[in-house]
Design brief:
Blueprint lengths: L20 H23 L9 H11 L2 H18 L10 H11 L2 H14 L4 E7 L5 E7 L10 E7 L6 H4 L3 H11 L3 H10 L8
Antiparallel strand pairs: 1-2, 1-3
Helix pairs in contact: 1-3, 2-3, 4-5, 5-7
Protein name: Superoxide dismutase
Function: Destroys radicals which are normally produced within the cells and which are toxic to biological systems.
Family: Belongs to the iron/manganese superoxide dismutase family.
Length: about 200
């Protein structure tokens, strides 16, 4: 058994012009696939061969196996990220909308804080909307392959701030990518599922 390389949940051109088909095909078909392939090569023939991706990440983190952690965490982060975007422009509702208002004052204020965190993030990494055990929301940042797949925070949404996520479309202007995607293509239905479940999303087996 090996870690699955999942299909995109929409057509490669479905987020255009915010993200082009070229970006999605390169990001998903080359970067994400490479992380999955390297993870599978590392666990082949070991006790982790049949493990869930989250278990592999936790094991690599505990053992200090940076190579396995980087590839397994990036596999998870990308699997989560694809679902965080949608061709449709949706909006938060229900308990999630209330939690956003409680934590940030408004949806727009939350987006501004998420965009600012992503724009100000040094080098590669991820910015997250996350919930603690009590359901309180916060903006979190992880560097490089850092992930919320493990730990105490429940990831609700993420945006990739590695250059390969946006460079073909926006060159070095990361803020434009963050604003366009976060205001036009965030999948708030997926976010609501993550918030309501109250536990970390499971990578598809």
């Amino acid at each position: 058994m090996s870690i699955k390389f999942p299909d995109l949940p929409y057509a490669a051109d479905a987020l255009s012009p915010a993200l082009s088909a070229e970006t999605l095909n390169t990001h998903h078909g080359k970067h994400h696939k490479a992380y999955v392939d390297k993870t599978n090569a590392a666990i082949a023939g070991t006790d982790l061969d049949n493990a869930a991706l989250e278990t592999i990440i936790a094991h690599a983190d505990k053992k200090g196996d940076q190579g396995l952690f980087n590839n397994s965490a990036q596999s998870w982060n990308h699997g989560f990220y694809w679902h965080c975007m949608s061709p449709q422009n949706t909006a938060p509702s229900g308990e999630l909308a209330k939690a956003i208002d409680a934590a940030f004052g408004s949806h727009d204020a939350m987006l501004e804080k998420l965009q600012a965190a992503g724009a100000g993030h040094f080098a590669s990494g991820w910015v997250w909307l996350a919930a603690d055990k009590d359901g309180k929301l916060s903006i979190e940042e992880t560097h490089d392959a850092g992930t919320l797949a493990i730990g105490d925070k429940n990831p609700v949404l993420t945006l990739d701030v590695w250059e390969h996520a946006y460079y073909l479309d926006y060159k070095n202007v990361r803020p434009d990518y963050l604003k366009k995607v976060s205001t036009e293509h965030m999948n708030w239905d997926f976010a609501d599922e993550n918030y309501q479940r109250g536990s970390t999303w499971s990578y598809p087996g």
